[in-house]
Amino acid sequence: MSAAVDLVPFEEALKRYDPVIGLEVHVELGTRTKMFCPAEVEFGGEPNTQVTPVSLGLPGALPVVNRTAVESAIKIGLALNCQIAESCRFARKNYFYPDNPKNFQTSQYDEPIAFDGWLDVELEDGEIFRVEIERAHMEEDAGKNTHVGGTGGRIQGAEYSLVDYNRAGIPLVEIVTRPITGAGERAPEVARAYVHALRDIFRTLDVSEARMERGNVRADVNLSLRATPDSPLGTRTETKNVNSFRSIERAVRYEVSRQAAVLDASGTIVQETRHWHEDTSSTSSGRPKSDAEDYRYFPEPDLVPVAPSRDWVEELRAALPELPAERRRRLHAEWGYADAEMRDVVNAGALDLIEATVAAGTSAAGARKWWMGELARKAKSDEVELADLPVTPAQISELQGLVDSGRINDKLARQALEGVLAGEGDPTAVVQARGLEVVSDDGPLLEAIDAALAAQPDIADKIRGGNLGPVGAIIGAVMKATRGQADAGRVRELVLERVS
Amino acid sequence: MTDLTRLTAAEMAARLSAGTVTSVDLTQAHLDRIAAVDGDVHAYLHVNAEEALATARDVDARRAAGEDLHPLAGVPIAIKDVVVTQGIPTTAGSKILEGWVPPYDATLVERVRAAGMPILGKTNMDEFAMGSSTEHSAYGPTRNPWDLTRIPGGSGGGSAAAVAAFAAPLAVGTDTGGSIRQPGAVTGTVGVKPTYGGISRYGLIAMASSLDQAGPVTRTVLDSALLHELLGGHDPRDSTSVPEVVPPVVDAARQGASGDLAGVRIGVVKELSGDGYQAGVSARFEESLEVLRGLGAEIVEVSCPNFEYALGAYYLIMPAEASSNLAKFDGMRFGLRVEPDEGPVTAERVMSATRGAGFGDEVKRRIILGTYALSAGYYDAYYGSAQKVRTLIQRDFDAAFEQVDVLVSPTAPTTAFELGSKLDDPLAMYLNDIATIPANLAGVPGMSLPNGVSDDGLPVGFQILAPAKQDHRMYRVGAALETALEKSWGGPLLEQAPELEEKA
Description:
The complex is a heterodimer.
Chain A: H1 10-16, E1 18-28, H2 67-79, E2 83-84, E3 91-94, E4 104-107, E5 114-122, E6 128-140, E7 144-148, E8 160-164, E9 171-177, H3 187-205, E10 217-226, E11 237-242, H4 245-264, E12 272-277, E13 282-288, E14 298-299, H5 310-318, H6 324-335, H7 339-347, H8 351-359, H9 364-372, H10 374-382, H11 393-404, H12 410-421, H13 427-434, H14 442-455, H15 457-464, H16 471-481, H17 488-499
Parallel strand pairs in A: 11-12
Antiparallel strand pairs in A: 1-9, 1-10, 2-5, 3-4, 3-14, 5-6, 6-9, 7-8, 10-11, 12-13
Chain B: H1 9-18, H2 23-41, E1 44-47, H3 49-64, E2 77-80, H4 107-114, E3 119-123, H5 157-164, E4 170-174, H6 181-187, E5 190-193, E6 214-218, H7 221-231, H8 249-257, E7 265-269, H9 279-294, E8 298-302, H10 310-325, H11 347-358, H12 361-374, H13 380-403, E9 406-410, H14 426-430, H15 437-442, E10 446-453, E11 459-465, H16 471-489
């Protein structure tokens, strides 16, 4: 462990240093079986039940490449504007560790399946930042170690360790960026937005559930500082397994602050891997990444090269679904939102919800009003994602339909929505059960109007005298008397008829 | 009654199908023979008597019920201990796997079982198939049935000795640099290394993945063909398996036995003769060439200049792959687990202690060599250069096979040497495979068959090499030579071997 250093505040660090980031993102593919054997993959199985002699690394077992995994890797490569290799090989990465059943990982080394791509990442203010992709390659996941008897699941002080090989051999695609320069103070945001964009692409391509909390997507954050954008690249550190969007942003900020402090004190940055600590939002030194780490890569002799035919690649390219960025552009145009409105919708995670609401027959403006208004407030106060609120786009569309048909007004609609969120049923049912419908019979309204005029004779006189200013007071009284269930427009009409 | 164990596998199969012998008789006869001679020979690491007899009874019953059976059904077989067998201990000749019982069958074992062949047991071998004498077995050496003071070759000395000692009619071997052919040569038996990928490697405990190849170990060329045909063919579980049907090896062996080699062009590899080859070995080789010429073959000399570098390239590629393949033996999941004598019991220290205690010297030597050859900064000079040599050797073969149908050479430079005589001189031991290694580097098939005894009275082997996927060519030439030689000897060469003492 390096000695504790005082951190330099991020903003101050940026006055003296230019940060360069690099991201290595691993995504677990959602294939039915593993990368090199027919063991079925399912989240949460009993330990060591999803294994074969191959994924246990038993003597004599041999790997066979999963075609669907190759297809997924090609799709990811295409979505990231990469070249797809005409032929590429797997290699063995040799290192001893109990979660690594063969004591080598079958990966790709100098011949990745996809390379030389880019991804345009949209930042929160709508700025587009292009991230260059060096490569996307296929590999297999390791098993999972559980250390028992120590503190906090750490290996230090543990009595014994258990290994679950269910995860061993699950297909991974690792996407490596080129050094990302020019982000400056936005480096943390770029890092986060890039991983977020990748996550959305994985989901759109349907190659992975891409659930961060299950470790389907894991990021390693490389960071170095240099004096100015013209200086040569500085020494980098690699912070491993930063597994939430927020943590990615924080890890970049932390390393900028830490490295700046080291450099300010005329120290040198050690090229090393660092561990991310979620609880303290800080990193700590792992192992030095120098000569000690020699993986003795060589071409995997148990496999033949993967040579996707150009026909197959073109078939996959033609069948690619609309990618998230294109879709945003299309919906933006279709819905006619202002740029800022669209950005807010995207940032709030409301895009899918609004699209589904519109598809159910509601106007784009109507859908936005609900999701970005009442529901956004509710999500914020409940500290949940919009999509996790107990209401569906179909219900919102039904609710707006009730408003549009005049059966309820906006105020009643908000009450109906409360009922829906409380689990009382669909909007129509809630309106009926709570008796929220607008009073459309003139009889009760006229009674209430007469009562209101009688109760406020001076106002009645003013109106009769042609001063329409105080009509609102009468309408207000009527609305109060009908507990808001009157159509204010109709009330106004009736009041004017009454006094004429 | 004749001694059943002296029959060829083809004769056994014929008698079984004619109903003049049962599989139980055959299996029991071999188990008796094993009990009588294997104390001296030590060809077997594990005898699978109970299961073999159960298989024999089952196949006899199925035959009695009129079931359609494989031609080799009921013929017993021995399997080299580097091949995993479900429910039968498998050690690869190493202490590190002592007591391990695999939970699955190799593909070739599945085929043996499906054919209804009783598995007599697992044969001895150099640890992880690393060696040319079977002296590197962690369970003691196998002895050559021709002379118990001599080595039976290696790594598959157990399979060859079992067949030579009539303790099995058929055996499976594996050949990474000559481990089927060189034991065949020094025990007077037939051994075939098929085209790389011709028989599935799924379930073979790997030494060097790009070189390993399983194949038949028998007493006749036809028997090898029969077994080759059963074991060969595509296996979707082995990505390097040839995606084609087995070449017509049985037909070729039968055709060859008729003795006509008119129009067949045979190339003598210039680089695989001369210095280092024992006089008796060279003499028998020349005589065999005369026999082939007499059968109508055209004999020409061809040059394969890069074969000179084969041994050097082999001893970089093989250890490099082995160092990685053997990493899985770490005491974490199966086999031996040794905890350090003192200090903390961490995974890393258990791995280290297990590997230190479980591997023998030759295995450690090759792991160290391979680790070095692959390490950063040395990879290009060693592994990279070796791969280039490999390509050159493949080109030598391509050029040679444009001129001739098959290539021939002595299988091994010498007859069987004395036990212990080369154990402390690894380089001398490695030189024993000088003629067999090029075929592994190029992936082409090779066969060794007995072609006489040398001046020391010990058997000599004749090697035939064919282009990839043309395995049938060497069966034709081999069967023709075998038939002619046996006619001149008045019977199989093994009849000239001294009788082993049978012990109660």
